Amino acid sequence: MKVIPGPEHRTENPTSREPSIRPLDPFIPHPDVRERHSLVVRAPAAVVFEAAEAFDFQSVLFIKGIIRLRQLLLRSINVERRPIPFLQEALAMGWGVLASTPGRVFVAGAHCQPWLADVRFVPIAPADFASFGEPNRVKIAWTLEVEPLDSNSTRLATETRAVATDAESRRRFRHYWRWARFGIVAIRWFMLPAIGRQAERAWRARSTSGVA
Predict the structure, then answer these.
(1) Rounded mean pLDDT of the chain?
(2) Contact status, residue 107 vs residue 134, Cβ threshold 8 Å
(3) What residue spans define the domains of the chain?
(4) How many Cα atoms occupy the beta-carbon half-sphere of 100 within 13 Å?
(5) Please, what is the Cα angle at 28 between 76 and 173, to 5 degrees?
């Protein structure tokens, strides 16, 4: 597994072109903030998606530390949690499913006020997401994507976009984003390689046992 940090934290493969239309384009075509990160994992796409779906992102101590630091800085409530699969936890937090292609792409979104200490994510129906404009809110959408490069390698990617619904929320969001982005981007940088390692271990175990 090879990771090259960059504007999109991306490892390019000369045999595969990135699509011109992204999964988030129908929902947030003109974001205030856009972050995309990807890497190549040496395992089939189905195995990579399974690993991502089941991954407990707070199992990475650095990610857990970032979340705890935000709680301390904003004096939010420290809620005890149990290990839970990534996508299951996202839905439990209030994220809504905007689109899904089983084993390939998962798109989630919600509106919130991210500058609050205890953020409440409120889902929006997919058909209403692009036009939603309730004042003093920020719409956020993110993806989990796997793209087969060949039979044994996959591009794993995640993209996050955010857009404020009015000038006041944009001002507050920009103030928040000045410092929060460092933790949010770092979480992606640690999460994707951890998922990749988990997928590669699972694929090696299957290959060794003869189960594919």
Answers:
(1) 84
(2) no
(3) 39-209
(4) 10
(5) 35
pLDDT at 161 (0 to 100): 97
Joined together, the tokens standing for residue 169 give 């929320």
> Which residues have CB under 8 Å from 56's CB, separation 6+?
83, 84, 85, 86, 89
pLDDT bracket for residue 8 (50, 70, 90) = very low
- How far the first Cα of the chain sits from its last, in Å, is 20
Using DSSP's 3-state secondary structure scheme, residue 88 falls into helix
Tell me the residue type at 65. Answer: G
What is the reported pLDDT for 145? 97
> In terms of C-beta distances under 8 Å and separation of at least 24 residues, what long-range contacts does 64-68 make, across chains too?
66/183, 66/186, 66/187
Paired tokens of 143? 């993806």
Question: Residue 12 pLDDT > 50, yes or no?
Answer: no
CB 161 within 8 A of CB 141: yes
* 18-52 per-position pLDDT tens digit: 556 899 999 999 999 999 999 999 999 999 999 99
Calpha distance 108→86 (Å, rounded): 12
